[in-house]
Specification:
Radius of gyration: 21 Å
Shape: globular
Oligomer: single chain
Strand content: 5-15%
Strand order of the largest sheet: 3-2-1-4-5-6-7
Number of domains: 2
CATH superfamily of the largest domain: Glycogen Phosphorylase B
Low-confidence stretches: 420-428
Distance between the termini: 16 Å
Structural class: alpha/beta
Mean pLDDT: 89
Order of helices and strands: EHEHEHHHHEHEHHEEHEHEEHEHEHHHH
Largest sheet: 7 strands, parallel
CATH topology of the largest domain: Rossmann fold
Number of helices: 17
Length: 428
């Protein structure tokens, strides 16, 4: 069976799709991943065929508009609409057209759920089955507030469900005009926010997160399959630099601090705040700069600065991890079995911070706008010294390590699709 996976976004969006592609290839399927051009080396380096999409998402988020959005507009759904349209405008249709071309010879299409409106248009135009995959819950439910909703307290079933509907409406507002222009070019009728929501609910969905954190809500359809995280274990051939090993051996396990691409408009200032927080709580630190993240200058000997390293190798060696709450980083921290301090900036990050707090495997998240060195120091101290929290984190890590999300997701794909010699590809 020939499959095309269509994804765009940050590394946390692309990496689970690479893991799924590798799992499907191991099961005998032919898979290509259509993603923004800047992920070519990453995808191909993991042995997955790559089809480039025009538009550099990392460059957009690292630019002035993207950094301003991370600082101000990302936590407000209504304010996010204008900013997202401005950022998506130059690239949305180009990416959709390239994705269509990448799917033309596929027997079935797998699409990142947040891009489901584009995926649905491609699948309809080509007459192909479609499955969505999503590293963060997407469908409305009474069980918990929607990811990206500003209020992450559980105020009851009606609030939770309405927050999910509202966030899907916001997502539609981000790119609805581009979707309908794309549909027009494909000679398809226009759709709406309501149509987008109906399509999402009707399309089989792989929930690429752990049932340990998010059991299947009773009001989700059975076509939603929570398989467990789609981990990509990259560190098998990775060799840590000697100075990193020397640092780790020189004292107690350090505190990992890294915010991926989320350092905002003042990465040097964020790095200075982090250095101050570590000094206040008397902890050694490992600072990961990231592709759009922290800019560290002179640091004390108690802090090691690293450009990049596999989280799956680093996190089990830490006393605690401080991060932005991205879905992929959250997953790796939970799997490692160490407490987490989440500093959310935007989108689904407050949601994952709230889940970590609810599980008791980390203190309350500290929103970026409320972050101070003293608050961060207090949260780090609790995460690294609370024995009960550490025990819960270890138990959560054991449960997640016992799951096999990739195998589960491959089984879901195969349950909805047959090979062409079995009466053609189908959906169930």
């Amino acid at each position: 069976m020939k499959l095309t996976i269509f994804a765009a976004g940050s590394r946390g969006d692309i990496q689970p799709c690479v893991a799924l592609a590798r799992g499907l290839q191991a099961a005998g399927d032919s898979v290509c991943l259509a993603a923004p051009q800047d992920f070519a080396a990453f995808v191909e380096g993991n042995g997955v065929a790559f089809r480039p999409l025009r538009g550099d998402v990392q460059q957009i988020m690292a630019g002035d508009t993207g950094r301003e959005f991370m600082e101000s507009g990302g936590s407000n759904p209504l304010k996010s609409v204008r900013a997202m349209r401005a950022m998506l405008g130059p690239i949305a249709l180009q990416m959709a057209e390239d994705a269509y071309a990448a799917c033309e010879d596929a027997d079935a299409i797998i699409c990142l759920g947040v891009l489901g409106a584009f995926g649905s248009a491609i699948a309809q135009a080509l007459g192909r089955p479609l499955l969505n995959v999503e590293p963060t819950p997407l469908l409305p439910t009474r069980a918990f507030p929607a990811a990206s909703w500003p209020i992450q307290r559980n105020l009851g079933g009606w609030h939770n469900r309405l927050s999910g509907i509202a966030m899907l409406w916001v997502i539609w507002q981000w790119y609805g005009p581009f979707v309908n222009e794309f549909r027009r070019r494909l000679s398809l009728p226009a759709t709406s926010a309501a149509g987008f929501m109906r399509d999402l609910r009707a399309t089989p969905l792989i929930g690429a997160y752990s049932p340990t954190l998010i059991p299947h809500p009773p009001d989700w359809p059975p076509s939603v399959h929570i398989t467990g995280y789609l981990f990509l274990d990259e560190h098998a051939g990775w060799q840590p630099p000697p100075d990193l090993l020397a640092f780790l051996d020189a004292g107690d396990p350090p505190i990992y601090i890294g915010f991926g691409s989320m350092a905002g408009r003042d990465p040097a200032g964020m790095a200075a705040l982090v250095v101050e927080a570590l000094a206040l709580c008397g902890r050694r630190g490992l600072l990961l700069t990231g592709w759009g993240g922290l800019h560290a200058g002179d640091v004390p000997e108690s802090i090691f600065v690293l450009d990049a390293a596999p989280h799956s190798w680093l996190f089990p060696r830490m006393a605690a991890v401080v991060h932005h709450g991205g879905a992929g980083t959250t997953a790796e921290g939970l799997r490692a079995g160490v407490p987490a301090v989440v500093v959310p900036f935007l989108f689904d990050q407050p949601f994952w911070g709230a889940r970590i707090e609810a599980l008791g495997v980390g203190p309350a998240p500290i929103p970026r706008k409320k972050l101070t060195a003293a608050r961060l120091a207090g949260a780090i101290h609790r995460a690294a010294s609370d024995a009960a929290m550490q025990a819960r984190a270890r138990a959560c890590g054991e449960a997640i390590r016992a799951e096999d999300g990739v195998a589960g997701a491959v089984a879901v794909v195969r349950s909805y699709c047959r090979t062409p010699d079995q009466e053609g590809v189908r959906t169930r």
